[in-house]
Amino acid sequence: MLTRAQRRRGIAWGLLSLLGITLFVGIAVTALLSWDAGDTGARLFTAYTWRILRFTLWQAVLSTLLSIAFAIPVTLALARRPRFPGRVWMIRLMAVPMGLPVLIGALGLIGIWGRQGVINSLLLKLGLDQPVSIYGLTGILLAHVFFNLPLAARLLLAALERLPAEYWQLASSLGMRPFSVFRFIEWPAVQRVIPGIAGLIFMLCATSFTLVLVLGGGPAATTLEVAIYQSLRFDFDPPRAVALAILQIGITALILIAMARFPIPDDAGMTAGQATRRFDGRTVPARLWDAFAISVATAFLVLPLASIVSAGLKADLWKLATSIAFLRAAWTSFAIALTAGLLAVLTSLAIIAARGSVADMKRPGKVAGGFSALLGGMSSLVLLVPPVVLGTGWFLTLRPIGDVTRFAPALLALINMLMALPFVMRVLAPAIETHRQQSGRLSASLGISGLAKLQRIDLPVLIRPLLTALSFAMALSLGDLGAVALFGSNDLTTLPWLVYSRLSSYRTNDADGLALLLGIICLLLTMLGTVGQKEARHD
């Protein structure tokens, strides 16, 4: 369906994107590997390094197990209850932690579980002398479950909602009891997707930075990324930072290899396309259990969000919003976020165009096929080399030149672009492929191409997914603290760095107000990305 010129242009844009990403990441990694760190092996195999590595993996394992274990009953309850007051809002609530800046979520959790929080205040009134500590391993696990339980629940729920309606009809006709329904229908569907979900959550927790930085509570609860940051920012020990960064790359590479070995879930089965109607879970105990699971999950997610709003409203929001520090940080954050978002969308379009050009070839060959696969892997390269590691590599590269902060805005935009690229690809690739299948042959037969095709055929259909991808990318960039942590200063202040600096200087009232303002901005962007999405149909 594509002309030879169109295929050449698509491959050229894909090759340019591939070279740009490879060059940017390659320079950072090369700087790490070539830095004179003395005996790198000796620095890797120290008691300090092994302690950090053990804690990094241990907290990631526990966070993954807890997130999935708590997500399963919530998912089963939501799947059994396709209609109840507020279900749509409950599903939307699960998208909030994914669009909320991690720093803001941490502040909300401190407001509920901190020493002066709601939970500990109640425990003290009940006579408990040792309240729950939000800092250390407990706080890290709590925060990871807060952010990852909704992610796991949404993915598990999607797997259950894809089950054919005939399964439930057959279960009803056979008179299956609840345990049999779980054993033969629900668990097989959930089991197919759990390995992939667990791998994703484990990767997110193993590379966690902001939550550990805020809630870690000292050397006993430090992950590799936080240790890299501390080595450069506080101790200024580049050799140790290099050794830890190399170890971080090795760990993430092993995790990605393990995730790649997970089997891709196959289709649930043939279906006539009937609307799903479930006949189980109608007993009083089942209704009470489902109501309990949904209520607890809702409270667990709502209370920290309510704490953010409550604490933020106590601050002088107008004074904060009109202060020079906020306006300067907001302008810097918006400029970086818009640049990162546009670059992520343009890079994704180039990758998709190149892969589409390869797919349009009659006989692509091994070289073209490998090129397409490499492009697909490049979109997730940030998982292999996390933002803190990229920032460390570029910090070491630019330090001999002079003041690193001069290059920091451009570096932050590029790092945030890479961070948003997997999410942007996930939004744009299916939409563009569907549009290509629906309109490609007709456009070719009518001889419409170039700007005319873009204006009359492509943009009217793709404008929504393009804006969705841009809004998600900008929200991720606006709320990111990991990349700016190495470069933040009085001359370069983003909104997350401003909140963190106020929190570090014990100006908690200002930090709460700024956190609320930042949270509102990011959630508004995230909401723009979900406008028009429909829930699954149930009868």
SSE map:
Blueprint (H helix, E strand, L loop, with lengths): L3 H31 L5 H5 L2 H34 L6 H7 L2 H4 L2 H12 L4 H8 L11 H25 L3 H9 L4 H29 L3 H6 L8 H10 L4 H23 L23 H30 L3 H5 L2 H37 L4 H14 L2 H4 L2 H12 L9 H39 L3 H29 L16 H10 L3 H23 L9
Helix pairs in contact: 1-16, 1-19, 3-8, 3-10, 3-14, 6-8, 6-14, 8-10, 10-13, 12-13, 13-19, 14-23, 16-17, 16-20, 16-21, 19-20, 20-21, 21-23, 22-23
Describe the structure.
The protein is mainly α and 539 residues long. Helix content is 75%, strand content 0%. Helix 16 crosses helix 21, helix 20 (408-446) runs antiparallel to helix 21 and helix 22 (495-504) runs antiparallel to helix 23 (508-530). Residues 534-539 have low confidence and may be disordered.
Order of H and E elements: HHHHHHHHHHHHHHHHHHHHHHH
Count of β-strands: 0
Strand content: under 5%
Radius of gyration equals 25 Å
The biggest sheet, with number of strands, parallel, antiparallel or mixed sense and barrel status, is: none
**Which regions are unreliable across 5 or more consecutive residues at pLDDT < 50?**
534-539
Overall mean confidence score, pLDDT: 80
Q: Tell me, what's the shape?
A: globular
Q: What's the N-to-C terminus distance?
A: 41 Å
Helix content: over 70%
User: What structural class should be given to the helix and strand makeup?
Assistant: mainly alpha
Give the helix tally. Answer: 23
Task: Write a concise synopsis of the structure shown.
The chain has 539 residues and is mainly alpha-helical.
Give the key terms.
mainly alpha, 539 residues, 23 helices, disordered C terminus
